[in-house]
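I'd like us to work through together how a protein chain folds, taking it slowly. We need material for that, and I hope you will provide a protein of your own picking. Go ahead whenever you are ready, and we will take it from there:
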Amino acid sequence: MAKTILLLSSIVVVFLGYKLKTVLEPPPLPPPLEEIWWGPGNPGSVKPVVKPFTINVSDKVLKDLQWRLENHRPLTPPLEGIQQQYGMNTKLLKEVIDFWKSKYDWRQREKFLNKFPQFTINIQGLDIHYIHVKPKVQNGIRVLPLLLLHGWPGSLREFYDILPILTTPQEGRDFVFEVIAAHIPGYGFSKPAVRPGLGAAQIAQVFKNMMKELGFKKFYAQGGDFGSIILQHLSVLYPESVLGFHSNMCIVATPLSYLKTFLSSFYPSFSWWYVRPEHYDRVFPAKEHFYKKLRETGYLHLQATKPDTIGAGINDSPVGLAAYILEKFVSGTNFTWQQRQDGGLKEFFSYTDLLDNIMLYWVTESATTSFRLYSETFNIAHMGLGITRQPVPVPTACARFKYDFYAADGMLTETYPNLVHLSDYDGGHFAAMQLPEVLGKDIYTAVEIMEKNAKK
């Protein structure tokens, strides 16, 4: 009897070990993605021709906006003693709206937004809008292609201060970047899909094809927020196209990382081997960080499930659009600024800077279509591809900013086994716009390491 029990116990242990190993290992890569025609018309009906683009919004759109700003309903006063904890404080919102009505000059900003060369190209039925800046090179300076992608609620406006840094030769560097910064489909002046299914993986395919059409079979890639998610998918699905991947929002979504988080939430001492001591407060108390994440990601669940419902309201009201986006610039830049009456908005940005970004949503009526990216990515079919569980095979660099989403050192290597550069900075979610010099220098440093490693 004892031998039988021992044998059965051994079988159970081996079986459970096998099942655990199966769960923790990444799934097989999905088969090559089908190239779907996402725009109107028949496949191939529009050729991938590069066309110059200039932002030129009609007077009709601007007059309509002014009317809506002047005739919005009275704002509901905030509760006593509340700053930004309930979302956008309406006293601060009124200040921004008054500035928008009386001091913000779109025609002047239009000139500013048109200062870089802009183009569109049709890829798989979608007109993709992008900025293409070529550097003025000196002898001995190599030019490396770099694809820049933004996220939500950002836009190409995030990159206007970092573009001159990336495209100007830096002292001590023997290379500089030729930058292609693109609006994600459904954002800004990039057209949205007319049929469902355009998630991060499919958009990765679109940008791989776009870069190929522009003459770049291999390129470096950099992104934050959803730009990082898309480029992570691109690096996994098309590693032959990516020379290296730099992210200011490296995410880890593996079963092993969830297991580590679960165990260390009960036994914090378990984390000693994967969390730096100086970063302990960014992970623990686990309960507090869980509630914070829950509180700050309500938008994600809403946009991932009912994007068109929230889109109907936000797309109809410039005041609602401003409140929805600016609240993220408060909490995303420094979540402790929720306790400030001014939300800390002017610490790093001006109202003009922030309204440029908001206007790119308003004049293109892209609120709803931008929200849909969440519903097309965070669903069973797309998540079932298992791409976020795959190790990224290309050289990777992660720049972690203090008030952004955080992944501990011992978790990053699960997803990024070729992590060649890891850095930590003060700052928040919108790093390219908040700290362009810091992020720009980090990109140069990371790519320099990748270039040297490639020569070995």
Notes: The first helix runs from residue 2 to 24. The first strand starts at residue 51 and ends at 52. Residues 47 and 169 are 35 Å apart (CA to CA). The radius of gyration is 23 Å.
